[in-house]
Recover the amino acids of this structure.
């Protein structure tokens, strides 16, 4: 008895079957899709994207963010409320100040990559010794720091200069750190926090040590 053979699939039939399998594999569950859409809507705003990019580095207050971004504080607060509602940022209170930080690890990794793009216009000319020289010349007057920079790139130049006041192989109690930093600026508490937040120094049980950087 002759065995009936199945017809050989046509090229268009094979392509259709392959397309159907690949399409099915790429289908995103509705819940995950909605979460992705909400996430992208939040990032679609340039100011919120830049806020998240800054928070990927360290904590900021509303006042600090407003100064860096050139926005009014109520505008920054509105953006932060939306980010908080979407579980993207945390807020902690210290006295009368509210400090905001990034919440989700996945967002943190993503924005560490996005931040240079969000601030590309600000950082195009920040490389080299000439930029550092100009920053130090602007912010230091007769050896004193006239103000603490809010722009991250300029702030790091100033912080690296202050870190040079501390030896790598020595431990410093907080009182001594304050005395050294007050030679440059009265707000030693902010400078201490920035040195630690930017990983130029470590702090454990109110003892500080300078970290070696690449």
């Amino acid at each position: 008895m002759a065995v009936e053979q199945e017809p050989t699939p046509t090229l268009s039939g094979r392509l259709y079957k392959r397309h159907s399998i690949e399409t099915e594999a790429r289908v995103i569950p509705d819940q995950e899709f909605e979460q992705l859409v909400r996430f992208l809507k939040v990032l679609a705003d340039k100011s919120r994207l830049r806020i998240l990019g800054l928070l990927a580095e360290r904590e900021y207050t509303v006042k600090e963010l407003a100064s860096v971004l050139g926005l009014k504080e109520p505008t920054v607060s509105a953006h932060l409320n939306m980010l908080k509602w979407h579980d993207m940022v945390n807020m902690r209170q210290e006295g009368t100040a509210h400090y905001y930080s990034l919440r989700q690890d996945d967002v943190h990794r993503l924005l560490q990559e996005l931040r240079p793009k969000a601030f590309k216009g600000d950082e195009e000319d920040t490389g080299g010794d000439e930029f550092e020289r100009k920053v130090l010349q602007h912010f230091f007057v007769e050896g004193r720091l006239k103000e603490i920079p809010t722009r991250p790139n300029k702030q790091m130049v100033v912080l690296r200069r202050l870190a040079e006041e501390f030896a790598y192989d020595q431990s410093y109690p907080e009182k001594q750190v304050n005395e050294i930093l007050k030679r440059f600026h009265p707000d030693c508490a902010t400078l201490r926090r920035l040195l630690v937040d930017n990983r130029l120094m470590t702090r454990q049980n109110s003892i500080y040590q300078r970290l070696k950087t690449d």
In short: The longest helix spans residues 11-26. The chain has two domains: 30-122, 125-210. The chain has eleven helices and seven strands.
